[in-house]
Amino acid sequence: MPLVDILSADRFSTYLLWANNDVALGERLYSYNVQLSADFYSSLHMLEITLRNKCDLALENAFGATWFDDPSVLKDPYQRRCVQEARALLLREGKAATHGQMIAELNFGFWSSLFGRSSSHLWGTLRPIFSISGLQRATIAQKLRELRRLRNRIAHYEPILAQPLTALHTATLDLTSWMAVEAAAWITTHSAIAYPATPIIIMDPTSGQSVFDLALIGHLPV
Questions:
Q1: Quick one: 134 exposed, middle or buried, by C-beta within 10 A (0-12, 13-18, 19+)?
Q2: How many alpha carbons lie under 13 Å from residue 164 in its C-beta half-sphere?
Q3: What would the pLDDT profile of 153-172 be if each residue is shown by its tens digit?
Q4: What is the pTM of this model?
Q5: Of 49, 72, 84, 171, nearest to 125 (Cα)?
Q6: Domain count of the fold of the chain
Q7: Domain that holds residue 57
Q8: For strand 210-212 and strand 201-203, is the pairing parallel, antiparallel, or unpaired?
Q9: Contacts from 113-121 at CB under 8 Å and sequence distance 24+?
Q10: How far is CA 171 from CA 21, 95, 146, in A?
Q11: How far apart are CA 206 and CA 128, in angstroms?
C-alpha cells in the first residue's frame, strides 16, 4: 500500500506540496520529518526535566514543599488548574499524589508559564537557576513559548520542516546549558541529526510557494 494511502491524502498533501508533486521526494520528506521530530523530542525531554526540577527546587526552598498549592505563588488560574488536573489524574490512577509525582505530572505548559508576565513576581526566585548574566524574564518566556509550540506539533505528528529548526535546536541547548551544562552535553551526545545551517523549506521565486531546498537533498533518508 502506498504511503499516501496510509497517511491520508490530506496529511500527505503538505509534503507533496513541498516536493513539487514528486511523490518519492514527498515520502523522503515525511521520513525526514519523523527523524527530526524524534531527535527534537529527546532534546526537549531533557530540557523539560531540567527545567521542572530546577524550578521545583528553587520554589520549594523559597516557599516550602507545598508551593504549588499556595495561591500567593501560583496566581494564574491556568497554573492552578494544571495543579488540580494533575492531582485528580494521579488520584484516579490510584496514586498518592506525592510531591514528586505532582512535579512529574505537571506539563511543559505549566513550567513555561512560570516565566510569563502573570508570574513576574516569581522571577526573583527563579532567576538564579540560570547561570548566564544579563538575562531577562521575557527572553526565557519567549524561548519556552516557541519550544512549547514545537513540542506540541511533534506530539501531534505534525510537519515541523518549515520551522526554524536550527534556531530552535540552539535555543534548546542554550536554555538547558544555562541551567545544567551536563544536561546540555547529554543532548549533544544523543542528538543523531545534523541540522542544516539554512532553512529546509524555502520559497520558490517562480511559483511563490513553499518548497524543499533541493540543495539539502543529502540530509534526507534514502
A1: exposed
A2: 8
A3: 999 999 999 999 999 999 99
A4: 0.91
A5: 72
A6: 1
A7: 3-219
A8: antiparallel
A9: 113/76, 113/78, 113/79, 113/82, 114/55, 114/79, 115/140, 115/141, 115/144, 116/76, 116/141, 117/141, 118/75, 118/76, 119/74, 119/75, 119/76, 119/79, 121/75
A10: 33, 35, 9
A11: 51
